[in-house]
UniProtKB/TrEMBL annotation, chains A, B:
GO biological process: tRNA pseudouridine synthesis
Reactions performed catalytically: uridine(38/39/40) in tRNA = pseudouridine(38/39/40) in tRNA
Record SUPFAM superfamilies: Pseudouridine synthase
Family to which this protein belongs: Belongs to the tRNA pseudouridine synthase TruA family.
Catalytic residue positions: 52 (nucleophile)
Pfam families from the UniProt entry: PseudoU_synth_1 (PF01416)
Its EC number(s): 5.4.99.12
Top EC group: isomerase
Coiled coil: none
Protein name (Swiss-Prot/TrEMBL): tRNA pseudouridine synthase A
Length: 245, 245
């Protein structure tokens, strides 16, 4: 029963999210279907991060077991073939020990959030960024982001549906940088609460447009109340970029 | 009759190309339709470069006349509103003198060609790059590109359908750079023949994969025979990035 670890990329827009659901196609479901078409095996695929509908990945990590010896190279070629025409690509495949677990072995996760900040709508990058037409002050957003670093109770940035046992998380990095029209927000932590990145970005956007002083983000965090923070940013701009083991 | 100069962006995949045609939607047709919805005027829009089906633009320049005074800002807002849901965006609008002509006043055009060179297919950037799975040597491609710089008879890189009066063109820049998985080819000239950039890229790809020595590109150019050069690269990777006046 060899175990395979895959790094995968997907465009999240056509999917109901990572997880199999009855109301549409999922990344998990299409991967499991591709494995079945490849070798006739019904198996379950486990991911490091269960991304929501519309959220993308350039570095999602998954694992699954097969019932026979197959080379990593063959798994990559076969799955990329059988995944067509879905926008999912297998970037790398490794054979790993049986105790590797894509979700529970993960020591860190990295997300990128992309905002295009200009008057004109986006055409080429549609579905791939959050278009914000009001001018945003990236330096103010960065100043606000500093209040969220470290270990905190992130209840104010947690989705109601979040299944985590504790709202306490340690945010290792939250960095806002601007290059011309694009603002990039990089977030790193061992793990995140449901919607945490999008809720932090939606709150930083209020700072960026001048509706909030950067210090209000500290107050929002300390309130431990979802209503104290800003709205949830759309999924379009969010990318799971990497998982550390 | 004020004349307007617009810088526009579009994702080329859903269009039959810039030019109005009977067999599908065109960028020109949708812009003219948006102008009509905005102010009821039937007008003709002229572009600096008549891009082919599937070719994108981040810096296409167009002009048209209106029969009344309208602010540049209002034109931008109205056209972006009326262009929905097509992936066309008006980035800037200026009012220009009557003798400005998007095509004939242009002194230079810049194109970018994007190749993603990796074993895994592309998911997020699908339709937006040329995916090449065989490893390409970007330095060899750059060495080959040097042979094309300057004034030449570019018959070997000219589409059969090209309507230019002369095959003589001056190529000012053709630069190949690699960053991780992506190879970018930037081309600049006063003007290009039909398919010239895609034919040059298709030829450089043969050098990159080691099928051709870089010097063979010089021989292909000197042959003045389309059959002596490489195939036409797909439209997906090509962007009209800017026009100089």
């Amino acid at each position: 029963m060899p175990r395979f670890k895959l790094r995968i990329e997907y465009h999240g827009t056509p999917f109901v999210g990572w997880q199999r659901q009855d109301n549409g196609i999922s990344v998990q479901g299409e991967l499991e279907a591709a494995i079945f078409r490849f070798c006739g095996l019904e198996t379950t695929v486990t991911a490091a991060g269960r991304t929501d509908a519309g959220v993308h990945a350039t570095g999602q990590v998954i694992h699954f077991d097969l019932d026979r010896e197959v080379s990593a190279e063959r798994v990559q070629g076969a799955l990329n073939y059988h995944l067509k025409p879905h926008p999912i690509a297998v970037r790398t495949v490794e054979i790993v020990p049986d105790d590797f677990h894509a979700r529970f072995s993960a020591l860190g996760r990295s997300y990128l959030y992309r905002i295009v900040n200009r008057r004109a709508p986006v055409a080429i990058e549609r579905e791939r960024v959050w278009w914000v037409s009001v001018p945003l002050d990236a330096e103010a957003m960065q100043a606000a982001a500093r209040h969220l670093l470290g270990r905190h109770d992130f209840t104010s940035f947690r989705a109601a549906a979040c299944q985590a046992q504790s709202p306490d998380k340690t945010l290792d990095l939250l960095q806002v940088t601007r290059t011309d029209e694009e603002i990039r927000i990089v977030a790193e932590a061992r793990s995140f609460l449901h919607h945490q990145v999008r809720n932090m970005v939606g709150t930083l956007k209020l700072v960026g447009e001048g509706k909030w002083h950067p210090d209000r983000v500290k107050a929002a965090l300390e309130a431990r109340d979802r209503a104290a923070a800003g709205p949830t940013a759309p999924p379009d701009g969010l990318y799971l970029t990497g998982v550390v083991y």
